[in-house]
Each structure stands twice: as C-alpha cells, then as structure tokens.
Amino acid sequence: MLMPNVLLIDDDALARSVVRTLLEDLACDVTEAEDGVVASSKMEGREFDLIVTDIFMPNQDGIETIRKIRRARNDVCIVAISANDAINEVNYLKMAERIGADYSLCKPLKSEQLKGIIGNLKVSA
Description:
- By secondary structure, this protein is of the alpha/beta class.
- It has one domain: Rossmann fold (3-Layer(aba) Sandwich), CATH 3.40.50.2300.
- 39% of the residues lie in helices and 20% in strands.
- It has a 5-stranded parallel beta sheet with strand order 2-1-3-4-5, sandwiched between helices.
- Helix 4 links the parallel strand 4 (77-82) and strand 5.
- The protein is globular.
- The N and C termini lie close together (9 Å).
C-alpha cells in the first residue's frame, strides 16, 4: 500500500500536532491547514486520500468544509472530529455524517481508530 496523503484541518495548533503525530506514526503523508479556507487552497491541484477536519473553526467551519469537499469530490474519505460535541444540544458530528463525512470521532483521537480508517482506504498510485 502506498503512503496515504492526508489533509488535516484544525484551528488548534496543539491538536493538529497531536493528530499529525498519530497519522505519521501510521505512515501517512500529512498536510496541515488551520481552517476550511486554507484547506481549499491546499486542495487545488493535489489529491488527498483522507481528510480529517475539526468541526468548530473560524473563517469556515468543518460543516461547510465537508459540504464543499463533497461537491468537488465524492471519492475522498472524510473524518469529522470534535472535542465539544458531547456538550452541545446539536450533535454536530452526526450532522457531519449526514452531509458527507464517512466517519466522526471525538477528540482526543486514538491511534487504533485512525488505523482502522486508514486500513479501509483505497490509496491510488
């Protein structure tokens, strides 16, 4: 299997660093973006096998980011992540799945969760 290309979108630099380490430990090539707007520019001309996006971010939140990605590409695997979902009346992770996320995970993420998702990817040459 080739090394999966992953776009990691999260406004929290510490969270990005932690998730990046988990993904790199699973032999992924990781590109970071601090919000959906930056992610859109990083997606231009580049194919990603997996996109991991936080839900709550400035400029463009994860819900809008997932909508835009799904309009452009239906073949990429999207994982929505959030630390705050359990305290809100609205379940944003479930909403993310309804609009196109393939998986939703609560932070802090665990290596085993990501390993299972990465194992299901069909990485193109």
